[in-house]
Structures are given as C-alpha cells and as structure tokens.
Design goal:
heterodimer, A: mainly alpha, 10 helices, 70% helix, B: mainly alpha, two-stranded antiparallel ribbon, 11 helices, 67% helix, 2% strand
Chain lengths: 210, 294
C-alpha cells in the first residue's frame, strides 16, 4: 500500500480538518461523474478506491467505511446508467449500449452503422461513441440532433448538458488557480479615478492635473 | 510541434521559473550536443514540456547545474540533463524535420530547403535510433496529407492524425502499461488542441494563399477578404467548446498520473498557460497584443 498521507496529498500529522478537506477535494476530482464517457474511467475508479482506503487508514474510524461505500455505490450506478435508459428501445440499440458499456467501441460502431432506423436514439448513441473516441465536434453535433428529434427525452438532454458543462469545469479549475484574477487596466483606471474624487471631496488631491 | 504549450509566466514562482528554464535550456543544449549547433534553432516550448512531464511521471529528480551558453555568454543559468531530456530533443528534431519538409512541399521556399538539408543528417540517424516512433510518425503525417489533399470537411477527422501522432510522442515505452494508457489519452487531446488552435491561428493566411484549412471547409467559408472577422465570430463559440473540451480531458488524464516532481509548473502549463493561449488566439483577452516569450 502506498503512503496514505501521500495519496491524500497531506503532510503526516495533519489535522483532522485538513485531512477531511483534502479527502473531499480528491473525491470531487476523481468522481465517476467527472470521468463518465472517458476512456480512463476504470483508472479513475481505482484511484478513488485508493483514496478511500487511504482516508480510512488515516482517520482510522468506522464512519469512513460508510463514505467509501457511498461513493463506490454511486460509481456503480453511474456505470449502469446507460443500460437503464434503454427501456423501450430496439433490440440492436440495447446491444450497442452493452458493447459501449463493455468498452468495445469498434464493434459498437459497426453495429450502429448497420442499423437502418436512424431515430433520436441512433444519433444519441453515435454521439456517445464519438465522445469515447475523442471526436468532440461530431459528438456534440449528433447529441444536438438527438435532442432536436426528441426534445422530451431526459437522457439525451442530460448528455448534451454534461458535454457543455465539461468545458466550464476546466475553466473553473483554471480560475481557482488564479487565472484571470489580476486587475485589468479598466479596473485600475476606475480605482484611480475614484480615489482622486474621494481625495478631492476631503480637500486633498491625488492626481494634480485634474 | 508548434510551441503552443507554454507556462503562464506571471503565475510561476521564481524558483519554478528557474526550473522551467533549466529544462528548456537542457533540451536546447542536448540538441547541440547530440545533433549540432544550428539544429538548436528548431527548439520549441513543447519539447521542454514533454521533458518535464515525462521526468515527473518517471519521478526523476531535477538536478540543476549552472552553465554558460553561447546565446547568453556572460550570464550563467541553470540547466538539467538526463535521458528524458535527450529523448525530447530527439523528438524535437524529428518533428521539426517533418514540419520543414511539409513546408517545402507546400510552397517550395528556399529557406525550407536549406533547413531540410541541415536537419537531414540528424534525422537519418534518428530514423535508426527511434525506428518504431519514426515509422508511426511518418504514417500519421502521411494520413494527414491525404486528408488535406481530399479537402476533408470533418474537423475531428482532420485533427485525428496529429492527435494520434502526439499520442505516440507521449507514450514513453519504459513506463508501465497503465501510465502509458493515461499518457496516450493526454497526448491525443494535446495533439488535437494543437492542431485545431493552429488551424484557427492560420485562418487569415490560409484564406490568402488558398490553402486547405479544416475550419474553412467544415464551416463552408465562401466570403471574400473582409468576411474573415465575421466568419471568426461565427465559429468562435464552437471552436472554443472543442478546444476547452480537449484541455479538460487532457487535465483529467494528467490528474491520474503519479506526478510529484515539478507538479506546480506542469499544472501552471496545463491549467493556466494553455487556457490563456486559447483565449489569446480566439481573441478573448488582450486582443492584438504581441506575445512575449518565456
């Protein structure tokens, strides 16, 4: 087993609060929702397991087993989500979903292309396949088509929304690291102008010429 | 590689900046030692990132030495050397040679021909040393030129060969299978990002010279010269979506690597440097300002 403190990214002897925070951050980072439709989802799951074990070891309390069960339970639910949504669909669509869930992308693609009935579900599954291949433009175009053809379907809309949210997650992550945090030129000018006005109100002056 | 993968300098610590420079100078000097002095001019920031990423993944400690350099003869600066730095310098030469060869085939410029002649000797040597990697890189570039000749109108299909090329470049074969799988996905998404951001960056030039550009064929550009900015405004949102998606997936892959050494610098590049580059090229922040080198 790896050093559990290293796994959680905290120093040995860190306080309970620090450990809890690190654990929560890590779980958020490797959560199955983040790695849905990603070819590395299995590895993310393993990593999450490692984090749960490390947290259990470090905190050494029973309450964590509850948390770990909770997360792994959710991960399993996320994995089976695809097959749940297939109710009422064609038999071959079910097969395509099964192939996708097993990670057999090439076969799923071949089977899907051979289906003549190109309905909303067909476009949705095609979008899903493109996603796994990393063809994001084609994926989003197919998802949009599926939503257009069947606007009431929650599964299709949800997939499209998740795709759109993904880029925002990345930008949010960058913002947390300080990207775009510095004042821009406009802010500085406004600040200077306000300070000058305030000084003048009190009888002084910050910028002599105005 | 085109030098799009850069850190965001104002967000680096001074210590981190020195280390980044040490990798950059290390790759440069390694090119000088292994291939020749003029070849050093092909150095890109991407090669420095490659070296740093692989060193961190392999958990190689950064050993700094202070050396002087012919480019800055008086000031001594930090440098670091190891086998990964050598690998990155080799990859840098392989890609630079192919890039110049592509230019020569496109516009038959004399500059490209001279540069090709200079790089030819080192390239031939590398074809023997890294025969497997070279074969795959050549195959991918062949696929790319076929797609370009056929005026491929799918963005994803056009970006695929370069994405697969970068996948190969990052896949360092001394690592374990799981790490290599993660690195391949990281490389795939970086490659796609590089290809597409370069395509957006080159829009004006490609319209002028009537060259192939996947964005022009995909979005069916038909306007004259003044339609360019209008065209860019129309496609900006969709391109931003794809580019950020690639970066998001690359970041997810990175989080699965057991990187420790220089993690801060790598995070700076992946989360801030590349996003800032995307925004600059898509013209969202500080439009029109000149780019500074690191």
């Amino acid at each position: 087993m790896k050093n559990p403190y290293e796994v959680l990214g905290v120093k040995q002897g860190a306080s309970e609060e620090e450990i809890k925070k690190a654990y929560r951050d890590q779980v958020k980072k490797y959560h199955p929702d983040q790695y849905q439709d990603n070819p590395l989802s299995k590895l993310a799951e393993e990593k999450l397991k490692e984090i749960n074990e490390a947290y259990e070891y470090v905190s050494g309390k029973g309450q964590t087993t509850k948390a770990s069960n909770g997360w792994s339970g959710r991960s399993a639910a996320a994995g089976s989500q695809g097959s749940q949504g297939s109710q009422g669909g064609d038999e071959s669509f079910k097969q395509v979903r099964m192939l996708i869930n097993n990670g057999n992308i090439a076969d799923a693609e071949a089977l899907l292309e051979s289906i003549p009935n190109k309905n909303a579900e067909w476009f949705y599954l095609r979008g899903l396949l493109f996603m796994k291949k990393g063809w994001y433009n084609e994926a989003v175009m197919n998802m949009k088509q599926a939503v257009n053809m069947d606007p009431s379907n929650y599964e299709y809309r949800d997939a499209l929304n998740k795709m759109n949210a993904n880029s925002n997650v990345y930008r949010g992550n960058a913002n947390n690291r300080g990207y775009g945090a510095g004042p821009n030129f406009c802010d500085m000018c406004t600040c200077l102008w306000c300070s000058d006005s305030m000084c003048e109100c009190c009888g002084g002056d910050l910028i002599g010429c105005c | 590689m085109f030098g799009y993968i850069m850190p965001e300098k104002p967000e680096l610590k001074i210590k981190e900046y020195d280390i980044y420079r040490a990798y950059y100078c290390g790759v440069c000097k390694s090119i000088g030692k292994r291939h020749g002095q003029i070849e050093r001019m092909t150095l890109t920031y991407d090669a420095a990132f490659l070296a740093m990423l692989l060193c961190s993944t392999l958990n190689i400690e950064t050993k700094l030495v202070k050396e002087s350099c012919i480019v800055h003869p008086i000031k001594k600066s930090f440098v670091t050397y190891n086998e990964i730095i050598d690998y990155s310098s080799d990859i840098n030469i392989i890609l630079a040679y192919n890039n110049i060869k592509d230019k020569w085939e496109d516009d038959k410029s004399k500059v490209a021909l001279v540069a090709m002649a200079v790089l030819k000797k080192s390239y031939k040597k590398l074809m023997v040393e890294h025969s497997e990697k070279c074969a795959i890189i050549n195959k991918r570039l062949g696929d790319l030129s076929l797609l370009e000749k056929a005026k491929c109108d799918s963005i994803d299909a056009a970006a695929e060969p370069f994405a697969k090329l970068m996948e190969e470049v990052l896949d360092y074969n001394k690592l374990d299978d799981k790490t290599r799988q993660v690195l391949r996905w990281l490389g795939y998404n970086l490659g796609k990002w590089i290809y597409l951001i370069d395509a957006f960056d080159d829009l004006e030039d490609d319209i002028k010279s009537a060259s192939y550009n996947p964005l022009l064929t995909h979005f069916k550009y038909n306007g004259s010269g003044d339609g360019i900015s209008e065209f860019k405004n129309q496609i900006r949102g969709q391109i931003e979506f794809i580019l950020l998606y690639c970066l998001g997936e690359a970041a997810k892959a990175f989080e699965l690597l057991a990187t420790n050494e220089n993690k801060g610098i790598l995070e700076n590049i992946l989360y801030i440097g590349m996003l800032s580059k995307t925004d600059k090229i898509l013209c969202k922040r500080s439009c029109g300002k000149g780019e500074k080198s690191v």
